[in-house]
Amino acid sequence: MKARYTTDELNGRLRFIVGCCLAVTMVGTIFTALYGLLFVSQPMEQSPNDAALFDLITPIATFLVGTLSGVMLGSNRKDTNGDGKPD
Prior knowledge:
mainly alpha
């Protein structure tokens, strides 16, 4: 019979999965924007659609970086004295 995971193990797995999903989303967004800039022929003037896309990508990428750093830096405080509250 399998042993149940502890709260710390579940928290670690959750943080790992959320971090991987956010990182993959951020990398996909960046590479899509780079592909559009490098390999798609662009006119001399920026089109309104491209400007709107970059205006939309900027806050999304900022949010993803902030969330990813928050998830990765979130504390796993231990309860060393066993009173049920992190020390």
